[in-house]
Write a structure and sequence with these properties.
The protein is α+β, with helices and mostly antiparallel strands and about 775 residues long. Helix content is about 15%, strand content about 40%. The protein has 11 helices and 31 strands. The strands form 6 sheets. It has a 16-stranded antiparallel β-sheet with strand order 12-13-14-15-16-17-18-19-20-23-24-27-28-29-30-31, with no helix packed on it. A 5-stranded mixed β-sheet has the order 8-9-7-11-10, covered by helices on one side. The chain has a 3-stranded mixed β-sheet with strand order 1-3-2. Helix 1 crosses helix 3 (about 75-80), helix 3 packs across helix 4 (about 90-100) and helix 10 packs across helix 11. The chain is globular, with a radius of gyration of 34 Å.
Length: about 775
């Protein structure tokens, strides 16, 4: 990217800052710009959870002041500029993207806010509070703010919590539930807590069969007559005229399942098959789904009392099959069989299938973590429910051309041609020699995944690589957050051919690198544990953890033989790799508000070659730098240790750079932090800092000791910082990150700290880095 681009970008940002600072002159005469409000809580005694109470009161503040960013208000500036007779095209466009109408002091009605404050305080037990307000005005800057003061007395607290007398059987059930209430003696009066308690009671009653119950049937009454010290008795009652059917539990006596539901089904061509207390109703021939395979996904059972959690669990499990447009569970009441103590339900499960076959053609613009980008064509054929058991069979083929952008001057291997074919079969059940009880996987049933693929890669001026892979394993969700991925069989075979003299020269000069390419047969197992707390997008604190274990060569090593004494063992005349590799990827997101987040990440990885291998296979080694790593350094340009990629001479005697082949290691450490915030519309921004590097646990003589991990590793971290913009289109993210290094480990000690803003790196990627 030319330096003129960065200068233009810098001037644009500076211009936006300078212009957006000068808005005072545009404020109309007699008006002041409203800058916000604060609340002060005054009390003669200590107020418990004062900060939480203050947060609740702050939700009443109206109106919201104009937004500002680092003391600037570009939205206001472009609003005022657009009020001109001829604002110009750029000002009109910026107003549409950034502009917002000004909020003046005259728009603030403090008396209404005071009433809301008193309402919120009474709802939380602070009766007879007093609220007042006062403006603070700055005539020089033409701004005004308001301060609200609330004088809070002692709150009313709970003395006793009792259940009003009701008719059986619901009285006995509610009495049991009262024992688990969060209410306690001395608890402050709080309407929100009462609402939570009503919803808890409703939820617990529904779980034991009270199908028609509703939280709105419950009402709280408080009595302060017996006390003079602001205490009260609390009574939980039922409202008048609650329907009788709401006060009895319901039992499920029949379950009907429609695996191929269509509103226009011909009843003369369907039949019901009984299995485990369920009736499966579908076409006689051919059947759509074999009942024995569908039955484990349904956790609703005959004789159960109604439970919404069981119903929800069944719907979720059926949805994971991936062959249905929707899952609809309906319950039918049988009034003729209802008595005072028990109601009867029939459960009908309607499953509407997706089209069984699908064909997809994609023209892709590919961007990868190694800075390769280019067009690709992908064709995929999918057959859902292949063998009437929810199986998903897919065939894919791909043709792509990629070119490395920003890889450095005179670097070979900057373009590639890729051809690929793969197939995958996913079975929604566990194929295992020993039968495992269904309740062991209560949340979800494991999917058995098997597949293989073949790829051809032609790296210009370097080599050709033919690779094949096969896998067999399982994927299952333990709960909403935890996913397990286990592949007991994972095989990779690569064949390097048509290597150029330049590439052969690199291999001759670096024996460790040559060894990493020699062992082309990898057979082992992989296991991943994933905890994804990021699914709770409304939570303030979110954690993501991914740990992966990759072990190769142990099982196949039982059949290995030593063809030449002192040389690595082989199977089928192929040297096989032996290693263990473990990674941990830990992410923590702190959600400041709905639009601002601080995201952090720690990554640590270690690979240990042993037995048949002196070094890790090349494709299993770590690299550092690039759009998903330390963004101030180009892909594979960081490490190992203090080593820097070096030029070599090609066949014509010209210097070329293929250092990125050398810059790998078996140890990787990285840390990242990023502040994410909105700009306007779909455009979001981020400030970030990254640190990391790779090393070798056993030094490579080719690197002359620069690559070996030591206790001085912190001083060898590559560090950088920068700014990024992201086009976030409803989850599809296009990301541009501009970063510059401020600590370069390739420099001599004492000269490594240097914020080199004159040589930034522009990263283009799809998706957030972490």
């Amino acid at each position: 990217m030319p330096k003129s681009f960065y200068k233009c970008l810098l001037f644009f940002v500076l211009g936006l800052i300078l212009f957006s600072c000068s808005i005072t002159k545009y404020i109309p005469e007699g008006e002041r710009l409203y800058t916000g409000a604060e609340i002060e809580i005054v009390s003669d005694t200590v107020v418990e959870d004062k900060d939480r109470l203050k947060s609740v009161l702050e939700t009443t503040l109206r109106p919201e002041p104009n937004t500002s960013f680092l003391g600037m208000q570009p939205g206001l500036y472009y609003y005022y500029k657009n009020q001109k007779v001829k604002p110009g095209f750029i000002n009109r466009w910026l107003y549409k993207q950034l502009g917002e109408e000004p909020v003046y002091q005259s728009d603030v009605e403090p008396y209404q806010v005071e009433e809301l404050l008193l309402n919120r305080l009474e709802n939380r037990g602070f009766f007879y509070s007093i609220a007042s307000s006062k403006f603070t005005e700055n005539d020089e800057k033409k701004t005004a703010s308001v301060k609200y003061t609330v004088d809070v007395p002692d709150p009313y607290t709970l003395a006793t919590y009792q259940l009003d007398t009701l008719s059986p059987p619901i009285y006995q059930e509610m009495q049991k539930l009262m024992a688990n209430s969060q209410f306690f003696k001395g608890m402050r009066f709080d309407l929100n807590n009462f609402k939570i308690e009503r919803e808890r009671m409703d939820f617990e009653l529904k779980k034991i069969g009270y199908y028609n119950f509703n939280s709105s049937f419950l009402i709280f009454e408080s009595d302060t007559n017996q006390y003079d010290d602001k205490r009260y008795d609390l009574y939980l009652k039922l409202k008048k005229d609650v329907p009788k059917k709401s006060l009895r539990p319901y039992q499920i006596t029949q379950i009907n399942v429609y695996p191929d539901y269509d509103i226009n089904m011909d009843s003369t061509k369907i039949a019901g098959v009984e299995l485990n207390g369920k009736t499966y109703i579908q076409d006689i021939e051919p059947i759509y789904f074999k009942p024995k395979h569908l039955d484990p996904f349904i956790t609703i059972e005959e004789g159960q009392y109604y439970d919404p959690l069981v119903s929800k669990n069944t719907a979720r499990r059926l949805s994971t099959l991936g062959i249905y447009k929707y899952v609809n569970i309906q319950y039918k009441e049988l009034d003729s069989l209802v008595n005072d103590s028990l109601g009867i339900l029939h459960a009908n499960i309607y499953l509407s299938p997706l089209n069984k076959r699908a064909f997809r053609a994609e023209l892709q613009a590919v961007t990868k973590s190694n800075n390769f980008a280019g067009p690709a064509i992908a064709l995929t054929y999918t057959n859902r429910n292949t063998f009437q058991g929810g199986e998903n069979l897919s065939f894919s083929t791909k043709v792509g051309y990629e070119k490395q952008v920003g890889g450095g001057k005179n670097q070979l291997g900057k373009s590639s041609l890729e051809l690929g074919f793969s197939t995958e079969l996913v079975l929604p059940r566990m194929i295992f020699p020993v039968k495992i009880k269904g309740d062991f996987f209560d949340y979800s049933i494991p999917r058995t995944v098997t597949g293989f693929g073949v790829d051809y890669l032609n790296r210009t001026d370097l080599y050709q690589l033919l690779s094949g892979n096969a896998k067999f394993g399982y994927v299952w969700n333990a709960n909403r957050y935890i996913t397990h991925q286990y592949n007991p069989i994972s095989v990779i075979y690569t064949k390097l051919s048509n290597t150029t003299e330049v590439f052969e020269k690199v291999l001759r000069e670096n024996p460790f690198l040559a060894l990493s390419f020699e062992q082309q047969f990898i057979s082992g197992m992989t296991y991943s544990f994933i905890y994804n707390g990021l699914v709770d997008t409304e939570d303030t604190h979110n954690i993501f953890l991914n740990t992966t274990l990759d072990v190769a060569g142990n099982l196949i090593g039982l059949f290995g033989k030593e063809d030449v004494p002192g040389e690595p063992k082989s199977v089928f005349n192929q040297q096989y790799a032996q290693f263990a590799k473990a990674d941990i990827d830990l992410r923590y997101h702190y959600r400041i508000d709905e639009k601002q987040t601080i995201a952090t990440r720690l990554f640590a990885g270690y690979g240990l070659p042993y037995g048949n291998s002196e070094v890790m296979p090349y494709i299993k080694q770590y690299f550092s730098g690039g759009p998903y790593s330390v963004r101030a350094f180009r892909i594979r340009s960081l490490g190992p240790g203090t080593y820097s990629g070096e030029d070599i001479l090609d066949e014509n005697g010209e210097r070329v750079n293929i250092g990125f082949f050398d810059q790998t290691g078996n140890i990787r450490l990285e840390a990242n932090v990023e502040y994410r915030f909105p700009l306007f519309g779909y455009l979001k921004g981020a400030f970030f800092a990254d640190a990391g590097n790779i090393w070798n646990s056993k030094g490579n003589p080719y690197f002359e000791g620069k690559d070996e991990f030591s206790s001085d590793f912190i001083s060898e971290l590559g560090m950088g910082a920068g700014f990024g913009i992201r086009f976030d289109l409803q989850g599809f993210v296009i990301r541009l990150d501009l970063a510059a290094p401020f600590h370069d480990p390739t420099q001599p000690k004492g000269e490594r700290f240097n914020f080199d803003v004159a040589s930034p790196v522009l990263n283009f990627a799809i998706g957030y880095p972490f």
